[in-house]
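Objective 1b. Sequence-to-structure analysis of Transcriptional regulator.
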Amino acid sequence: MSRERDDSAGPTERGIGAGGGGVSGTSGASEASGAAERRTAARAIAAAGGSGVTGAGSGGTASGAGTASGSVTAHLSHRVPDLGALELLLAVARHGSLGAAAREVGITQPAASSRIRSMERQLGVALVDRSPRGSRLTDAGALVTDWARRIVESAEAFDAGVQALRGRRDSRLRVVASMTIAEYLLPGWLIALRAERPDTAVSLQAGNSAVVAERLLAGEADLGFVEGLAVPDGLDGTVVAHDRLAVVVAPSHPWARRRKPIDPAELAGTPLVLREHGSGTRQVLDAALAGHGGLARPLLELASTTAVKAAAVSGAGPAVLSELAIAEELSSRRLVAVPVAGAHLRRDLRAVWPTGHRPTGPARDLLSLTRA
């Protein structure tokens, strides 16, 4: 049985010794006498042959009979009380009262009494003498309390270290995305993330879908976004949006005035302004026209959506672009969309990450925002 702790309370109280908290395991004897009694208690515990207790103090190790056969660490969790029980014992040492200790750790007195009894059964020794005047540690209890204090302090140091690691992880987010998503969707998502995590520094790299996979698999990014037909090898992913490719031309191009849709064979046989191999846009277009002879040799092959769009606007030739990228140009009539019949130009946009490494921290929060 465990409990949640308020980390803001700090560990200072837990560092108080058993003798300094008003409860003595030696009933007022001198320090030398107390040390002798603790050694006696250690020998008694070792002789008891119970579940066993391992101490890391200067006096070496005291253990139950079960540890003599070989591995000291085997089934350690069955021999060592949980942190909640050890913290309760330390609270009893500080207050000299089971009721006060129960209040400190946030449980009822009957629950505290039950936990102490369970720990005594687990260790095979009596830890607390209970009387109408309060609760007093036995000699064995005082020794176990000394060991417990070290365990709890080590656990607090462990917790602080993990918190620091988590804080360092949460202080930055590295995102890599294919061009269309990087230019037209991620800015809005990142603005929303900024409102939730103002202290997280975000870096964004843009590249085609192949580059996204390479960066993620090399550990150079925490979360990626791709526009291809499927999740790249070595990655897991989820669909976050949908998109459609459109054929566009400048208003001066003959296709701008045609009323009959272009069929896939005519589109495949026409030199186009295209994205490079490896881009999600190119993958979708290649797949859509594979059964119609495949793409003709490109008129131009460019490495960004912006470059393809600029070439189309200038009248270089027909281009194939995401509908997300051309909304403004269509509205202002700088580009004209040409209808296409019989070609599947719809695609899914995905968030991706290395297989088996589900996003955590700010990457998880950004993923949630894409679905909002």
